[in-house]
Amino acid sequence: xxxxxxxxxxxxxxxxxxxxxxxxxxxxxxxxxxxxxxxxxxxxxxxxxxxxxxxxxxxxxxxxxxxxxxxxxxxxxxxxxxxxxxxxxxxxxxxxxxxxxxxxxxxxxxxxxxxxxxxxxxxxxxxxxxxxxxxxxxxxxxxxxxxxxxxxxxxxxxxxxxxxxxxxxxxxxxxxxxxxxxxxxxxxxxxxxxxxxxxxxxxxxxxxxxxxxxxxxxxxxxxxxxxxxxxxxxxxxxxxxxxxxxxxxxxxxxxxxxxxxxxxxxxxxxxxxxxxxxxxxxxxxxxxxxxxxxxxxxxxxxxxxxxxxxxxxxxxxxxxxxxxxxxxxxxxxxxxxxxxxxxxxxxxxxxxxxxxxxxxxxxxxxxxxxxxxxxxxxxxxxxxxxxxxxxxxxxxxxxxxxxxxxxxxxxxxxxxxxxxxxxxxxxxxxxxxxxxxxxxxxxxxxxxxxxxxxxxxxxxxxxxxxxxxxxxxxxxxxxxxxxxxxxxxxxxxxxxxxxxxxxxxxxxxxxxxxxxxxxxxxxxxxxxxxxxxxxxxxxxxxxxxxxxxxxxxxxxxxxxxxxxxxxxxxxxxxxxxxxxxxxxxxxxxxxxxxxxxxxxxxxxxxxxxxxxxxxxxxxxxxxxxxxxxxxxxxxxxxxxxxxxxxxxxxxxxxxxxxxxxxxxxxxxxxxxxxxxxxxxxxxxxxxxxxxxxxxxxxxxxxxxxxxxxxxxxxxxxxxxxxxxxxxxxxxxxxxxxxxxxxxxxxxxxxxxxxxxxxxxx
Length: 761
Description:
The chain is of the alpha+beta class. The chain is built from twelve helices and 31 strands.
C-alpha cells in the first residue's frame, strides 16, 4: 500500500512539472539580421507568440531556419518565456560572372539559364553547394563536347557588407581528337561502311577534316552515330541486333580518345505471314495489304513497317476515325528466321469537330485564316482536310510557322477541338532609301509593299523608284477573296521610264503610262486561272545608233504606240511552305497577248516549274525549269524591250546579267524570242549559325540560254555550278552566290560573285 502511494505521488508530481514547463511564448526576438527583413524570418518560424514552449522548440527553430539556406549559424535561447534567436546571415551575391568561354560549348543564354537553374544571380543568397553544382554542370557540358581538360577557377570576393562577388574563369583546353575508332563483331557489313554512318571518326583527309572537324569528339555525335547503326540493322531484318559495349579511353594528356564499339548482329529475319484482324470498316484485307511496303518473304524492315502503319492510320483518319488504334502483333518463327505479322485494327467512334480556334494571329484577321481551313465546326474529322488546311496557311506567306493542337472533350470523346497556332512574319515593308539591282544599278525608292494589308489578306503595293536608267511610279491592289466563291480582283496604275544605255551611249528611252484590271477564279483546290486586261501608252525615243539599220530601225520609226494586252495566268501550287518549301511543286503558265485593238500584236508564253523533294531532315532537292516563247503576229514584230535576256540571278548564274543570247553589231545584248533555263539545287539550313531560321545555303547547277528565234541549239547552251546563300532579312530577301561557268564560249562575260535583293529559295 505504501509503494502504491509513492508511485501515485511521483506520477502527480511529473504531471504537475510538465504543466508548469509548458508555458506559452510571450515574445520572439531576432538579432543579427542585416539584409533579410524580420517579417521574412518570422514567417518561416514553426512557432508563434502564444504557442507553448516545449523541450523541442529550440531544435525545431534551428532546423527550420537552416533549411532556408539563408543562414550560416542559428542559436536559440529561452528566458522568461521569451525566445531569443541569434542569426548569422549567409552572404548575398553582389555579382557573378562567367569569363573566358568561347561559343564552342557555351553561349550567354546557356550560361544565364544554368546560373538561374541553381539560383545564382545578383541579390540571391550565396550557397556554396549551389556554386559547386553549377561548376559541375558547366564541366559536364564541356566533357560532353570532348573538352576533357577543362578547368574552372572560382574567385570569391567578400566585402565588409557581407556581399560576395564571384568570378568563374574557364580554361577550355583542347577538344579531344579521335586517335582510333573501331567496330567489332560485324559480319553482314564491312567495318568501313559502318564507320561512315558516324559524323566523327579518324581524320583520313586533312583538307576535308579542316572544314568538318570529323576527328573532334562529342558525346552527341557518338550517340547519333550509334542510333544510325541500330537503324541500319533493324531496317534490314536484324531484329536482335545490339550494341554490346562502347569503350572509350583517354590518353594521359586527355587530348586523344580511342573508341571501341562491340556489336552483336544476330539472325536476319524475313516477313512471314501478313494478316489483318479487328474491325476493318469499309476496307478489305486486300485494300490494307496494298498500302504495305513489306511483302511476305522480304527482309523485315522496321521503318517500312512504321511507314505502312502510318498509311493505314491516315486512311482511317481521313474517314473520321481520329482515334483508330492499329496494333502490329509479331510472332517469331525461329525455325525459318521469319516474323509473322498480324495487324489488329480498332476503329473506335468517328470523331466530329467541336470547336475551331485560332491563336497567335496578332495582325491577320481570323476571317483570313478561317477561309483557308477546309473544315467546319460540327463536321466530320478528316486528316487530309487538316493537312490541306495547314499547307494552305503556310503557302500564304503570312506566317513563319503554322501548327495544329488537338484536344478531346473529356465528357464527349467523339468530339475534337482544333486550335490552329500561327506565328506572324513580316509580309511587307515601308521603304525609303537606297537599294541595288544588278540590272539598274543604284536606285532611290520609297513606298509600301504589303501582301497582308492591315491583316486583311489583301495585297497593296505603292512604289516610287528612281535611278539613272529606270523610273517608276505605281499602285496595285488585289483582293484574293472578292466573293464567297474565292474569286479575286485586282487593279493598278503605273507610269515608268526606261533609259537603256547598255547597247550604246544613247540607246533608247521608253516612257509608259497605263492601268490594269484583273479577275481570277479557282479551278481546283490547288489551281487558279487569272485574267488581266492592261492598257498602256508607250512613248519611244531612240538614239541615232539604235535607230539605224542592224538595230531597231523599224520600231524606232514610231514615237508613240498604244498597247492593249490580255494576260492569262494559270497556276498550280502544292508547296508545303511559302518561304522555305521542302515538298510539293509550283507550276505556272503565263500568256501575254497584244490585242489588235492596240498598235502591238504579239504573243508571249512563259511556262515555269518549281519542285521540291526532301532528301533527309536537312537537305532538300529543288528542280526548276523555265521556257519562254515570244513572237509578233500579223505584220507586227515583237517589241524589242519585251525580249528575253539571259545571265545573272534567275537565269544562268556565273554569267553577267543580260549578256547571254543574241547581240547587236557592236556586241551588246539584243535579247531573243526563245529562252530555256533549268536548274538543280540542293538546299540546306545553316545549322552552324545561331538564329539562322531565315537563312539557307545551296549548291546548284544552272543550264540554259536565250536564242534569237524559236529554235533550240544544244551547242549554244551555257552551264555553271556554284554555291548560294539566301537570307530573309527585315528589308526583304537577300541573295548571294558564287558561280563557276562550266560551259562557256569566247566573248562570254562571266561573273563569279553577285549580291542581289529579292532573291530567295
